[in-house]
Amino acid sequence: MTTTHESRSSAETSDARPLLRVDGLSVRFPNRAGGVDAVSDLSLDLPTDRVLALVGESGSGKSVTASAIAGLLPASARPEVTGSIELGGHQIIGAAERDLNRLRGKRIGTIFQNPATSFDPSFTIGNQLVELIRLHRPVARRHALTLAAEWLERVGIHDPHRVLDSYPHQLSGGMRQRVMIAVACLPEPDLLIADEPTTALDPTLSTQILDLIDGLRRDLGMAVLLVTHDFGVVARLSDTVAVLRHGRLVEHGATAALLADPQHEYTQRLIAAVPELSADSHLVARDHSSADPAPAAVIDGVSKVFHGNGSRTSDFAALQEVSIRVDRGRALGLIGESGSGKSTLARILAGIEPASSGKVTVHRDERQIEISQLGRADRARHVQLVFQDHGSALNPRIRVGEQIARPIRRLGVAATSSAARRRTDELLDLVGLEPAVLRDRYPHQLSGGQRQRVGVARALGVEPALVILDEPTSALDVTTQDEILHLLADLRKATSVTYLLIAHDLAVVQAFADDVVVLDRGQVVDRFDARDFRAPDRDPVTQRLVEAVLPPRPTRISREPSG
Asked: 3-state class of 387 per DSSP?
């Protein structure tokens, strides 16, 4: 049974023919067991100039629905699709690939969840934008380059020529997301599909990106289909919400009414799982004893300069004399706006990127070990990372048990293969996965939460001095995020592991970390106890981040209905 909410804004548009009409959509993926019903009998309307949010846990059918609407369901999975999807009178289901390509180029734009994987790493941003423009417009390359620069300025990039000359990996996450928005909106589509558009972005940048999407929606007269697990994003951007569970619509209605008074128990549970910025929400009892703990890692005067190409791009100082101590058995939260240097510092700490000056040492067994003087294997023995993208962090061709056991063997933590297998089973059990069931599965056979648990097990397997958590929950739905955070907290109590947590969600940082360091433009600007986010003496950068946090359960909708 589907619960609905009515509002003036939705009623006003009910008589208008919708731009997008989904009628009885079902998507089934066949397998040896008979098949998986990813979407079942889904019906939705989306009028022009409105924003519809699809929300639900991992596996609820959100992304499959969005992919079906864009005509991007993977042919290799042999999906069985029934029902109807009409966009401006054009039928999507059953359309020829040539027609779908034309629709995607002119009528449908898509902002993908991970912009880093949406660009070709071997070509500059300028080359990729020019190719896109000339695909849809018969213009000379010089004119296409001018249009590309204009669009980069339109999406808030103030140095477009530097970005055009850059490769994707040379841009911050926020920059890549703005470029992705430009790519999606260049053809001025009728429908924009935004799939987790603010994942792994800091609060101030998230707000800017949402306002940018809303401004382009108004300017171009687009409808927006928003796929997200972030209820703050839902509240700020959407007019209506559709809640999916196991491929079925369980609740649907106006955003303000649904968030203020959710009717279905599933929706209530989703909203209840959203973390909030509260000093009382810590997952591990904080130790505020006066004893000075021993350090697990020390970052001492680290600077990092990326050199330009000598023409239109100049040298860029990503880090400037950064000094941070990570205490043993504690969790340090590292926050800052996009481009502040968080990821660069993490790569240097893990030995992936060399520092231009300064040094990083790890401390264990009364030894001080300088990371830059170690080989790759030895660095991995002391510092491990748990990545944001749990899917691409695992080798799709290797069973998960072997992916945990291999570094244990190679780094000498276990003397024999049988000992490594025993340790692997212990680790799987430690992170809440049944070894006999899951050790021989491949990553694609696991849910997102299970893959992230495997990543945690692999990181802990070599018994490192420090584990860097790089946005470990940002790509997960709210209930799975809650499970992973409690798992990490329990592991900390059980093993005394030391964490460096990099995250944009301040509520997650406050709940998980003991101490917080704030970076801004490559410099440390604030340090404080994690309970004190809202203290009056916080640095303006910290205050700006706190003020930008989107409330998950607002008392009123922040975006006024258009029209």
From this structure: coil
DSSP 8-state assignment for residue 353:
S
Cβ 440 vs Cβ 481: under 8 Å: no
- pLDDT tens per residue across span 12-27: 444 457 999 999 999 9
For residue 174, CA distances in Å to 24, 197, 435 come to 37, 10, 39
Q: What's the chain's Rg over C-alpha atoms?
A: 24
Which pTM does this prediction carry?
Answer: 0.80
Residue 261 counted as domain residue = no
What's the number of domains the chain is made of? Answer: 2
- CA atoms within a 13 Å half-sphere pointing along the CA-CB vector of 6: 4
Angle between helices 478-495 and 265-272 (to 10 degrees): 40
Is 139 a domain residue?
yes
Please determine, for residue 9, whether its predicted confidence score (pLDDT) is greater than 50.
no
Task: Burial-class residue 314 by CB neighbours within 10 Å (0-12, 13-18, 19+).
Answer: exposed
- 519 in any annotated domain: yes
Among residues 123, 239, 112, the alpha carbon closest in space to that of 184 is found at 112
Domain endpoint, select from 155, 188, 221: 188
What confidence tens digit (pLDDT) does each residue in 479-532 have?
A: 888 888 889 988 888 888 899 999 988 989 998 999 999 999 999 999 999 989
Is the model's pLDDT at 453 over the cut of 70? yes
Q: 58-67, 198-207, 276-285, 431-440: lowest mean pLDDT where?
A: 276-285
Domain of 418, in residue numbers: 329-354+375-532
| CATH code for the domain of 502 | 3.40.50.300
How far apart (Å, rounded) are the C-alpha atoms in residues 418 and 416? 5
Considering the domain boundaries, does residue 460 fall inside one? yes
